[in-house]
Amino acid sequence: PVRIGVLTSGGDAQGMNAAVRAVARSALKLGAVPYAIMDGWQGAVDGGDAIRELTWSSVSSILNKGGTVIGTARCAAFRERHGLLDACQHLVEKGIDRLVVIGGDGSLAGTNEFKEEWPSLLAELVEAGRITPAQAESHAFLGVAGLVGSIDNDLVGSDMTIGTDSAMDRILTAIDQLSSTAASHQRTFVVEVMGRHCGYLPLMTAVAGGCDYVFIPEKPPAAGWEDELADKLRAGRAAGRRESIVLVAEGAVDSQGQPITTDMVCDALEERMGERPHVTILGHVQRGGVPTAYDRWQPTVQGYCAVRQVLDQQAGDESVIVGVRHNRVALMPLMEAVRNTRAVKTYSDALDFDKAVQARGESFGQ
Ligand code: F6P
Fold it and tell me: Distance (Å, rounded) from C-alpha 152 to C-alpha 164?
C-alpha cells in the first residue's frame, strides 16, 4: 500500500490536530498507511522513531486539542543539501513517497523545493550506496499536498487558513474582558495583536469587537494620525462611551514604513488626553487553546481532500494547496499561491500598500 507522511511545520495553529487526524483516518479508509513525521522536517532529517506509523486510535482524542500533537520546529538542516539527503533517505527507507504538509507559506515553499530536488536526491543517494536502485525506482515520484496552518490568515488565494478563527476567538474574548474593566474606570486600552505581515486578525477583531481604532500593516495612517486618533477617542467619550479600545498589529507601520508600537500610541494619547492608556500584549495566548468548531470541521474536510489529492497525483503533477475559496475546498498550485503571497509582502515592504491591499483583498474576497 501507498505510505503517506504527515507533518506540521512552522508556527503552530489551532486546528492542526484536526488536519492530522483527518489525514491519518482518511488514509486508512482509502487503503493507504499514514505516518507521522515528528517535529516538522526535523523528524524526516532524524529518521528512526521520529517517523511513526499512525493507527486509527493513535489519533483519537486530539480533535479538541490546541497546538499540534506531532510537534513542529523550524529545521535549519532542511535548508542544507545534507539535510535534504537525510530526509529523502529516511522517507524512502520507510517507503513513504506521498506527503501532506501543514504549515505556513515558508514551510510549503520548502516542501516544494524538496519535491523538485527529489529525483536528484535519489540519484545521489544511490550513487553513495545509501539506498538501492530498486528503492529509488519504486519511489521515483514524490506526491505533495499542502494545508495552510497559520493563525495570520496570510495565504493569498485561500479565504481562511487553519487557526485563524480560533485566534480571533481568543482576541475577542480578551477585548470583551478588557472592555468591561475599561468601561468601569473610563479607561483606554491599547492592545497588541499578532499578524507579522498581515492585518487580518487585528482588522476583523476590531470590527467584531467594536473597537475605536486599528493600526494594520496594509493601511498605514496618514501623517498626523496622533491628532486624528485622540479626536476620535474624545468624540467617543463625548457621545457617552465609557471605554476606548485601540488595536495595534505587531507589524503596524506609518506612512514612511516606520513601526508604530503600542508605546508610541500611548505616548501620543497621554500627550493629548492627559492620561496614559493601559497596554495589553496578547502574544502567544492567541495561538493557544482549543480550536473553534470551524477549526475542527474545516481542516477535517481539507485533510480528507489532501489525502485524495496525493493518492491521485502522477509523476509530473504539480504540488497543490488544499485551501478554501467562497466557502468551498479549493485546490491551487502550491508555488503560484506562495508566489502571490510573497508579492504581497514585497509590496508592503516597498510601501506599495495599494497593491498589497488589492492582492490581499483577492485572497479573502473583499
Ligand atoms: O503564527 C504566525 C505568528 O503568530 C505571527 O503573527 C507572529 O509574528 C509569529 O507567529 C511569532 O511566532 P514565533 O514566536 O513562533 O516565532
Answer: 6
Within 13 A of 26's CA, how many CA atoms are on the CB side? 23
Q: How far is CA 58 from CA 62, 293, 295, 314, in A?
A: 9, 22, 20, 29
Q: Whose CA is nearest to atom 13 of ligand 1?
A: 11
- Written as one letter, the residue type at 352 is D
| Number of helices and strands in the chain (H, E) | 12, 11
β-strand partners of 320? 145, 333
Q: Which of 320, 322, 319, 332 is nearest to 362 (CA)?
A: 332
Write down the ipTM of this complex. Answer: 0.92
Do the beta carbons of residue 273 and residue 237 sit within 8 Å? Answer: no
Q: How many residues does the chain have?
A: 366
pTM of the predicted protein model: 0.94
Q: Where are the beta strands (DSSP E) in 81-198?
A: 96-103, 143-148, 188-193
Q: What is the pLDDT of residues 167-189, one digit of tens each?
A: 999 999 999 999 999 999 999 99
97 given a catalytic annotation: no
Which residue from 14, 150, 152, 250 has its CB within 8 A of the most atoms of ligand 1, so it is best to mutate? 152
- DSSP letter for 259, please: B
Q: Which residues contact 221 (CB under 8 A, 6 or more apart)?
A: 215, 228, 229, 254, 255, 260
From atom 1 of ligand 1, which residue's Cα is the shortest distance away? 11
At 284-316, the pLDDT tens digits run 999 999 999 999 999 999 999 999 999 999 999
